[in-house]
Write a structure and sequence with these properties.
Layout (H helix, E strand, L loop, with lengths): L17 H7 L12 E2 L2 H9 L8 E5 L5 H7 L5 E6 L5 H10 L4 E5 L26 E5 L3 H17 L10 E7 H8 L9 H7 L2 E9 L4 E2 L6 E8 L9 H11 L7 H5 L8 H11 L13 H17 L8 H23 L1
Parallel strand pairs: 2-3, 2-5, 3-4, 5-6
Antiparallel strand pairs: 1-8, 6-9, 7-9
The protein binds S-adenosylmethionine (SAM).
């Protein structure tokens, strides 16, 4: 007997074009909110295909706007699509899409930076971390000012296996300013290598899959846009708490063009800086004359492991902040200067 095909393919019925929706609901892009829309459905289909097979998937779309990507996701045969949009002007247009796809599209008027997606989909979708990724995907074309802080927040969620990653290794397909996409995927030694490269690559398999020219958007942004796909790793390449890794990586890149010992020195109070930096680099077996961009994720793993040991021995070390020390020293210098002035009077 032939296997019965239970899947039915869903296609949206004929609808007004995105351009017509924009006109109908007067959805002119707000420049201050960095709104740039995709009107070409062949292009939104192409972006959505980069997310992988979405058949029967539960998808969380961030910032749907007038709904171009939303339509492509619905046409990909998803079980459910949840969209979170901050600008209320887009809700009626999205409602029209929801009516055309009964039971498939859930609309939330809210902010992706605070929305709790971990409660939004059925519990039964949850997978063990080591299993294949769950059938839950995040897709979004957000303003650049939101996508970068959001990916940092989500990377922290990956490391803690909470937020969208309470379902398991949820995959993400997101757009970034091309330069940021290049930084996210930059390899050791490349010009674009940065803090973001290490923070993303120690937790996820990161792929820059597509470049969308700025002219594809309305209004046209000043830069091209990169589509980046993230799959959390079963085991992070640096097994230390996110804030510790962030502190080490941030310090290392503090002086981007100098030898790495300069930036890493910022992890330690001035009085012990030379000695402790030397110890850190020696124990981690990292050449102090490498530039930050030449440090691999393995180098960072050793540095984080040794720094962790140093923090365990001296519990005040992790709280040390070189900026505060510099500020205090400046105040002290000013006070001493004041004392000298008044003694001269
Ligand atoms: N996805 C649509 C497209 O590709 O045509 C719109 C893209 S536009 C660059 C970004 C969208 O994200 C806008 O609709 C904007 O209102 C929305 N947005 C911006 N910040 C947001 C936030 N914090 N939470 C939810 N939506 C947000």
């Amino acid at each position: 007997m032939a296997a019965s095909r239970t899947l039915t393919t869903f296609r949206l019925p004929p609808l007004p074009t995105i351009r017509e929706i924009i006109k109908l609901f007067r959805l002119q892009a707000v420049k201050q909110l960095s709104q740039n829309f995709l009107l070409d459905l062949r292009l939104t289909d192409k972006i959505v295909r980069k997310a992988g097979n979405l058949t029967n998937a539960y998808v969380y779309e961030v910032g749907p706007g007038p709904g171009g990507i939303t339509r492509s996701i619905l046409n990909a045969g998803v079980a459910e699509l949840l969209v979170v949009e901050k600008d209320s002007r887009f809700i009626p247009g999205l409602q029209m899409l929801s009516d055309a796809a009964p039971g498939k599209l859930r609309i939330v008027h809210g902010d992706v930076l605070t929305f709790k997606v971990e409660r939004a989909f059925p519990e039964s979708l949850k997978r063990q971390w080591e299993d294949d990724p769950p059938n839950v995907h995040i897709i979004g074309n957000l303003p650049f000012s939101v996508s970068t802080p959001l990916i940092i927040k989500w990377l922290e969620n990956v490391s803690q296996r909470d937020g969208p990653f309470a379902y398991g290794r949820t995959q993400m397909t997101l757009t970034f300013q091309e330069e940021v996409a290049e930084r996210l995927t930059a390899s050791t030694g490349s010009r674009q290598r940065s803090r973001l490269s290490v923070m993303a690559q120690h937790l996820c398999h990161v792929q820059h899959l597509l470049t969308v020219p700025g002219r594809a958007f309305v209004p046209k942004p000043e830069v091209d846009v990169g589509v980046v796909h993230f799959t959390p790793l079963t085991r992070p390449r640096i097994e230390q708490p996110f804030p510790l890794v962030e502190k080490v990586v941030q310090s290392a890149f503090h002086f981007r063009r100098k030898y790495c010992h300069r930036g890493l020195g910022m992890l330690f109070p001035e009085a012990q800086r030379r000695e402790s930096t030397g110890k850190l680099l020696q124990m981690a077996e990292v050449d102090p004359t490498l530039r930050p961009t030449q440090l691999s994720v393995s180098h960072f793993r050793s540095l984080c492991d040794v720094y962790r040991e140093m923090c365990d021995k001296d519990p005040r070390l992790f709280a040390y902040n070189f900026r505060e020390e510099r500020k205090k020293n400046k105040c002290k210098d000013q006070e001493q200067e004041g004392d000298r002035e008044s003694s001269r009077l």
